[in-house]
Amino acid sequence: MAKITLDTLAHSYLDAPQSPEDFALKELNHDWTDGEAYALLGPSGCGKSTLLNIISGLLIPSHGRVLFDGRDVTHLPTAERNIAQVFQFPVVYDTMTVRQNLAFPLKNRGLPADEIRDRVARVGRMIDMEDALDRRASGLTADAKQKISLGRGMVRDDVNALLFDEPLTVIDPHMKWELRTQLKTLHREFGHTMIYVTHDQTEALTFADKVVVMYDGRVVQIGTPDELFERPGHTFVGYFIGSPGMNLFDAEIEGTAARIAGTRVELGARYPTSGGTLKIGVRPEYIRMGETGIPARVTRVEDVGRHKIVRLDVDGHPVAAIAGEGQGVPDGATHVQFAEGGVNVYENDWRVTPEGGDRPGGRIREDAA
């Protein structure tokens, strides 16, 4: 296990990058704490795999350094970093049995036969392949082969880090949940540093201690699932995490209040803004429908089983609200309000912390202009 430090790290696939837009990975400084489970989350092309491959040694960064426990490994090959990496598509030895595939990295390290047997048996149970340990890999399905790849990454307990690059793409949905659970169990048991790349927010939020959200080659926020949901540090985080994502309202700030669509919304604090573009972010869970507040019109209701998604029009902009199980759209619902504590303020897409720190806000006064 190792603490991984990214020191002024940046990468471009161009020979002579001239501007920030030429970089697939913009400058990043961060410490990955020894023994924590991280998820790199973001859309395709945001730099997730580039960053993972730099950590693993498959890519040499254009700028900056990678350190394991303070040791500079930037130019060391993958084999000398003592990491295990599982890729999006399965990499197995077809001529070997499942048992031989799982045992391969242990045999290479000269472990005793008894220990190899015990570890292979344990991992075989974890990936639900006990009954297939003596089958040749060549006859297995793609998802079974990927389970072998996962198992081969998990069978060692001496690695500096376990790296996963969208490893569950070919796994069926039910098995995805089981394997994520097993990865969490492995992490709790052995305390490996784990970095898991995915574009699926459910995978990221259920797997990781901390989620690293990436957008356009930048890390826009690192936080716990709760922090990312309640206090998105960037409008992209609010949009990308949550289903539906965060609602954004154009606003003007007036002291401790905002004006949205002609309605004054009390924020409960002052926000130190500097004249940039301002927006108020409110998740659908914190939208309340009624007869007072900001004028709104219900356009449709989507029943998704455990709750209803209410689609509204507010001043010509689409807004989503969530009505919990057993709730419906109130009769005469012509306005929306924001639940206390559910409001975030953004300037030029970045979250603004209120003076005095975060505290509940979002109460609406009924003195619409």
TrEMBL record:
It comes from the Bacteria. Keywords: ATP-binding, Cell membrane, Membrane, Nucleotide-binding, Transport. It holds the Pfam family ABC_tran. GO terms for cellular component: ATP-binding cassette (ABC) transporter complex, substrate-binding subunit-containing. Residues 4-241 form the ABC transporter domain. One of its GO terms (molecular function) is ATP binding. InterPro entries: AAA+_ATPase (IPR003593), ABC_transporter-like_ATP-bd (IPR003439), ABC_transpr_FbpC (IPR015853), ABC_transpr_MalK/UgpC-like (IPR047641), Mo/tungstate-bd_C_term_dom (IPR008995), NA-bd_OB-fold (IPR012340), OB_MalK-like (IPR040582), P-loop_NTPase (IPR027417). Belongs to the ABC transporter superfamily. This is ABC transporter ATP-binding protein.
